[in-house]
Automatic annotation (TrEMBL):
Record GO terms (molecular function): lipid binding
GO biological process: ubiquinone biosynthetic process
Pathway: Cofactor biosynthesis; ubiquinone biosynthesis
Lineage, top ranks: Bacteria, Pseudomonadati, Pseudomonadota, Alphaproteobacteria, Rhodobacterales
Organism this protein belongs to: Donghicola eburneus
Role this protein plays: Membrane-associated protein that warps the membrane surface to access and bind aromatic isoprenes with high specificity, including ubiquinone (CoQ) isoprene intermediates and presents them directly to COQ7, therefore facilitating the COQ7-mediated hydroxylase step. Participates in the biosynthesis of coenzyme Q, also named ubiquinone, an essential lipid-soluble electron transporter for aerobic cellular respiration.
Record protein name field: COQ9 C-terminal domain-containing protein
Top-rank lineage group of the source organism: Bacteria
Amino acid sequence: MTDSPKAQLLDAIKMHVPFDGWTRPAYQAAVADTGIDPVLASAVCPRGAVDLAIAFHQEGDAQMVMRMAEPDVAEMKIREKITFAVRTRLELVEDKELVRRGMTLFSLPQNAADGTKLVWQTCDAIWNSIGDTSDDVNWYTKRATLAGVYSSTVLYWLGDESAGHEATWAFLDRRIENVMQIEKMKATVRKSPFLSKLMAGPNAVLSHIKAPSRLNDQGLPGHMAPKSQS
């Protein structure tokens, strides 16, 4: 089966990004390398290299989800699955420079929303692959907490020169442990007669928050989508 034009462009641009970044020159080089008609290339990638950088990130997410669906992962505990998912997501990257250059791209004001969306999508994909069924405020808190873990781990990984990235995996374990401590604290509150009564009011308010049935067309939860202008 022949790859789609966007897939061909994505494959071609990867060799140029380490030198030129996710930029117009790299995009133009990819178009030239593939021999795709520039008009067709513009149709499938209206924003050029930005669209290909997004496709690169989403490609990694899709590969991670496929790995998470394998039988050996099903036997893991929740904590192990989360750790495995984040580690797998990073190990799937063939060249750190592609991610490093991507972070530079998505740090620009005009692309910041895309960067936020991609991190959220990754964390949502991880929780969904684990089988998360939450439909209340926990839907948001789980993904927001994991976004913090994932983002900080990526930054650490980019600067890690240890053998086999062992320092990164140790860092990830510590971050996951911090999250688990928060979950243990929440469980303690629920079990405590005094604390549970103290939190009755806030919990009643939070209980009315429902998870979106799906992400909006910006790839963000409904409450994070920019308001339309009438």
